[in-house]
Specification:
With 213 residues, this protein is of the alpha+beta class. Helices cover 34% and strands 19% of the residues. Residues 56-198 form the Peptidase C39 domain.
Length: 213
């Protein structure tokens, strides 16, 4: 390879690497870095959070607020996703919200949150504790539109979600715990949100806990 072409190729590679590094730093500031957790723990083979709740349907890009409101109602606090979204922090110009925004709102309400990067086993373990877990997934597996939604149960075939996007609702539950079930293999594809600008955010989720007094 001529030296001029070799130099040009190296410049392109270095520029690409620098772009990835800068993007990762910006995302770490705007979104916070998820904490890796891979340790396998015991959990029930099937689990569903059976608590009467209300599943509201969003109209625009308010999934972060609607997911947060669902979790707040789980803890007995009346919350409306649309109202919550009005003053929701960490919004992008598009109206979408960074994960940090969800955590800020929940902490302000008196809860402890963690942002994890795990796998199917760690997600099931967290759900089996009895509190909805907010996952960061794609709306459709072949597109890059991203979405927050609470996971409220699982079994050997499906994950059960409290879905705020009307066109994704595909079932119903007597307790209003869930209105969407996703086959596990499909969920894995939706959960893989990784792209060149977001290398660290596949398989991430937010857990919520009450603060012990």
């Amino acid at each position: 390879m001529p030296k001029a072409m070799e130099g040009s190729s190296m410049f392109i590679v270095r520029t690409a690497i620098l772009g990835i590094i800068i993007s990762t730093i910006i995302n770490a500031y705007l979104m916070t870095l998820p904490l890796p957790v891979l340790r396998k723990r015991d959990y029930m083979a099937n689990y569903l959070i059976k608590r009467n709740n209300r599943i509201d349907i969003q109209n625009k890009r308010e999934c972060a607020a609607f997911s947060t409101a669902y979790v707040l109602r789980h803890f007995g606090m009346e919350a409306d996703g649309e109202e919550l979204y009005t003053n929701f922090p960490n919004k992008m110009s598009s109206g979408n919200v960074y994960p940090k925004g969800i955590r800020r709102v929940l902490r302000k309400k008196g809860f402890k949150t963690n942002y994890y990067k795990g796998n199917l086993n760690t997600l099931k373990y967290e759900v089996s504790k009895g509190t909805p877990v907010i996952v960061f997934i794609k709306v459709h597996k072949d597109r890059n539109n991203l979405h927050f939604v609470p996971v409220v149960g699982y079994d050997k075939e499906y994950f059960y979600l409290s879905e705020s996007l009307r066109h994704l609702v595909n079932c119903n539950d007597d307790n209003n715990s869930y209105n969407r079930k996703v086959p596990i293999n499909e969920f894995k594809e939706l959960w893989n949100v990784k792209n060149i600008n977001m290398l660290l955010y596949s398989n991430t989720y937010i857990t919520v806990h009450t603060i012990q007094s």
